[in-house]
Amino acid sequence: xxxxxxxxxxxxxxxxxxxxxxxxxxxxxxxxxxxxxxxxxxxxxxxxxxxxxxxxxxxxxxxxxxxxx
Length: 69
What we know:
mainly alpha
């Protein structure tokens, strides 16, 4: 195969890939974005079930210092 025709075929393949990417991007743009629902913890834990000790333990777990560094 001549070098010019080989380069032309490679360029055509590249352009085909680019067209596929463009088509995919356009299809994604046309789709209406779904409204994502935010997770809710409402009703998962009763207010009377949480003790001060539980809050303090959660704070320690959340704000613990990383000693391994």
